UniProtKB/TrEMBL annotation:
InterPro entries: AtsK-like, TauD-like_sf, TauD/TfdA-like. Residues 28-293 form the TauD/TfdA-like domain. This is TauD/TfdA family dioxygenase. Gene3D superfamilies: Clavaminate synthase-like. It comes from Bradyrhizobium ontarionense. Belongs to the TfdA dioxygenase family. It comes from the Bacteria. Keywords: Dioxygenase, Iron, Metal-binding, Oxidoreductase. GO terms for molecular function: dioxygenase activity. SUPFAM superfamilies: Clavaminate synthase-like. It holds the Pfam family TauD.
Amino acid sequence: MSFYKDFNDKLAIEAWNSGRREPYATIEVRQLSPTVGAEVGGVDLTKEVSDAQFVEIRRALDENLAIVFRDQDISKDDHKRFARRFGKSLHRHELAATRFRHEGSFDPEFLSWKTDKTSRFTAGDGWHPDVSCDPSPIAVSLLRVTRTPPLGGDTAFANMYLAYEFLSDPIKQLLDGLTAIHDGSLAWTAGYGAKPDPGKTYPQSEHPVVVTHPRTGRKFLYVNASFTSHIVQLTRRESDALLQLLFRHVEGQLALQARVHWQPNSLLVWDNWASQHHAVWDYYPEERWGERVSVVTGEVPRARLALSEAAE
C-alpha cells in the first residue's frame, strides 16, 4: 500500500471517529468496531418503544450503521411493530413466496430462508445491500436468525461512507456524476437460478455511483457486486474495470468491516443504503434459519440533496 493511500485511510477513520457522539440517556451502546456495528442494550422490544428511546436508537443506527439487540424473545408481531417505527411501509420481496420460504404460514412482509446441508446457496452470500435494483431500495432491514449453527454464520458489515472516503481524490472526481444500472436478474437469475413469472421481469434501476444520504447528508459509495451490472456513462470495458476495482476495494478493506456474531434471540438492524453486508456461509453442514422484515420510505438515491433538505 502506498504512503498516500495508507495516510488517506487513517485520516478518514480519524474523521469518522472524531465526530462528536453525545452520550445516550435511555439506551446503552457498545461499539463492535471503530468503523461499523454496535450492540444496543436497555431496550425491551416485546413492548412498545418509547419515543425518547426510539430517537436514541435511530441515532445509534445513524452513527454505527448496524446495531444488534440481544435477549429479545420477540414475536412476529413485535418484529413488524418495531420495523414500522423506521417507516410505515414494509417491503415485499420478489422471491419471498418462492425461493425464500420454509415451513409455517406465509406472510409476504417477511423474507424467510433455511440453509442446510442440501442447500446450493445461502441468501446473502456476497457483499451487497438488499434489493438495490428497486427504484426506492430498502432503507432499513431488521433480521432475526431463528436457528443458529453451533459455530459460525456471522453477518459481516462494511461502512460505505468510509469506502468512499478511502478512495483517492482523482477516483472520487471520476465517480462524481456517474450512474450505474442495478439489475435484479443479476442477483436472482444469475446468482440463485430464479426466473420471474411469465410476462414479468425483475426490477432494474439507475442510481448514482456516489449517493448523498438523506438523513446524514454524507456521501457514500453505492455500487455492489450482487446487483450492479454496469456504469452508464462508460464503455463496457471501462465500466467492468472500474466496478471490479470498487468491488475489490470494499471486499479487501478490513478496516471498513465488522462481523456480528449471532446468539439466540438477537435482532439485527442495519442502514441498507450506507452499508453492505455479507452472510458468511462457514457452518456447512449445520443449519441456519432466518427471517427479515424491511422498511421502504419511498426515497430514491440521489447524488446531491436539495437545498431545503441540506438545510434541515
